[in-house]
Design brief:
By secondary structure, the protein is α+β, with helices and mostly antiparallel strands. It has 17 helices and 10 strands. Helix 2 runs antiparallel to helix 3, helix 2 runs antiparallel to helix 5 and helix 4 packs across helix 5.
Amino acid sequence: MATPRVLMQRLRVPPSGWLYTHVLVRCAMYGVLLLLLVLGLSRAVLSLQWQEDRQLDLHILHSVSEQRVLLQRLSLLVPDPKAQAPDPDRWQALASTTLRLRKEADVLDQMQRRQSESAPLSSRETIAALKDWLVVREALWASLDRANLSGETPRALQDTEVRSTMMVIARAEMTLYTLAQQLAADTSQRSHRVISTIWAIVGGIVLLILALAVFLVEPTARAVRRQYEELSRQAERLKRMATVAEISSNAIAITDASHRVTWINQAFTELTGYTSEAAQGRRIGTLLRGRSADPTHFSEFTEALAQGRGIKREVRILTRQGLRGWVLVDMQPIADPAGGDAGWVLVATDLSEVRSQQEILSLAVSGAGLGIWHWDLVDNSVGWNRRMQQFLGYPDGVLSPHAASWRALIHPDDWLPWNESIRQHLLDETHEHRLSVRLRHQSGRWIWILFAGRAADRTVQGRVLRIAGVAMDVNAQKALEQQLRSAARTDDLTALPNRTVMLELIRTAIERHRTEPGYHFAVLFMDFDRFKQVNDTLGHTVGDGLLRQIARRLEDSLRPG
């Protein structure tokens, strides 16, 4: 079975820019190879051409030198007109030398034509020397033909023929010497030109290498390094993700595009009882439906799979122990680089313990008669449960969830303490938000509610996002407290201030007189004569009524304050 690493590598999407980097690297490599091939071929062709030209130049110089030697030999073999009879051997050597000279001249003509085709002469002196040689050579051939020196039959030569022939030979020898000098100069110039061309190519190669290094190799190397670093980071992320998927307590399953399971982790096996061998190749919908405590509830998952959209639901399943439990199933599609469906990933979180704790907490809150409230500081909205609404006497849907509506319910005298408590808690979490405030009941009366809450959510920077807590109806408790406070400072019968209050007022007046000498006060003592007779004759009930009547008349007689 494929591991999560292999699956994620199959399904991962290449980072942005990788395609451009691949093309750039490939083009750079092929470009360098092509450049090396072109440079190698150019060098080979240039070297071969230079060798051929060099060899041809050497052959031409050798031919010219050979003709000069033949001319010198020819001048030595010309018969002396004063000789009694021509020497046959000498005449034969003369004829052979003349024939060799003609052949060597033809060879020189052929090599010069080849040279003019491959490397045309550019020196005017060489062209002039070559023209002079052609003219002199024709004159030499004509002189030799007139003297019949190339014939096989010896004959006596006239003095004028010998002198004319020797002059032409000497002129031809000088012309060949001049031609040899110019050809040597052209050869040297041609060699310098080839060397300059080679250095130019070398310089161009160096410049091209520098350009490739600056504009192609270095950017490509940086791009490859960035790609390598990105691949390393991605490999590390995939490794961590694979490790997390393997050891996660959440049940995880991965499918292919046809919804068939390709991998599950151990938590999936522990939750559902399906082993890797049993789950592999089966459709994920079939596995979910087989463990569902309510198979009809899984129609939503079937529709989501058919439509290719993600789904997240809490469902009840049958665990491997046969118990009913709650799980949060989050099933999302995986897209391939082309945007198509590459598979699905399913993450199931076991909520059985959470649901159990929620039920216990709900029972505890319900049994304690507590209301639940929360205040979202981001969108400035409030919310509460049904018990809280019952405290205020409002049916469902009547109270507005806006914070302004909440503020309108708080008694004006209690708004500042409420706001200050909230502010202190936001500044210091150890300062609990706990106080009693009066809220307006639907009937219009004020009721006392005890609120206790804490910051529930915070940002990374520590800013509070939401406050939540509980509320308790303490209206009866507040009424009792008021009664206790009243009983401690008033007379039960007359509802007038009792002895304790009287002594506090006298003590306050005395202290004020000490600090303010001009301040004076008086204490009035009243005694009712024969009051005992009323109790004795008419009863204590009538006596108590008489005392209450006297108290009311005293209150009516006093000015306010």
